[in-house]
Amino acid sequence: MTAIIPSDPRLLRLAEGDTVLIVISPILAGDRFEVEGVAVVAPATLPLGFKVASADLAEGSLAIRYGTPIGRLTSAARRGDLVHTHNLESLYMRTHARGEA
Predict the structure, then answer these.
(1) In a domain, 79, yes or no
(2) Are 91 and 70 in contact (CB under 8 A)?
(3) Domain ranges, residue 82
(4) Total structural domains within the chain
(5) CA 62, CA 74: separation in Å to the nearest integer?
(6) What is the mean pLDDT of residues 90-101?
(7) pLDDT score of 18
(8) Tell me, what's the pLDDT at 3?
(9) Alpha-carbon distance 71 to 91, whole Å?
(10) What's the pLDDT band for 4 if we cut at 50, 70, 90?
(11) What separation in angstroms does the CA of 24 have from each of 10, 12, 41, 57?
């Protein structure tokens, strides 16, 4: 079992092994904060409920939240960067919407 290094209290780790942390209080662009013991500066505002990289993540690596892969990075993300639709391809199964055949 690996020791988890604390991050800024505005970030939440849902499970050991997660590669993304959840923003539980907004972090403004330019704010300094810690991600797993490493000081970073927010490159952009990090909104409530969004995900940030817990470490440097290479293109093609899995984004893991709550112990489950949720997507694959389409471009690299540095520790503390926003991980969202601009750099993440979902691994969730598509569901059918009303009117689709």
Answers:
(1) yes
(2) yes
(3) 11-90
(4) 1
(5) 10
(6) 65
(7) 96
(8) 61
(9) 5
(10) low
(11) 5, 7, 17, 21
Largest CA distance in the chain: 50
| Spatial separation of the C-alpha atoms in residues 38 and 44, rounded to whole Å | 17
Tokens of 36: 């797993």
pTM for the full model?
A: 0.84
pLDDT digits (tens, 9 = 90+) for 31-63: 999 999 999 999 889 999 999 999 999 999 999
Contacts of 84 (CB under 8 A, 6+ apart): 50, 51
**24 within a domain of the structure (yes/no):** yes
Answer whether residue 2 is part of any domain.
no
Two tokens, residue 51: 């995900």
Residue 6 lies in a domain: no
| Three-class SS state of 98 | coil
CATH number of the domain encompassing residue 82 = 2.30.130.110
Instruction: State the sign of the Cα–Cα–Cα–Cα dihedral 36, 40, 43, 49.
Output: positive
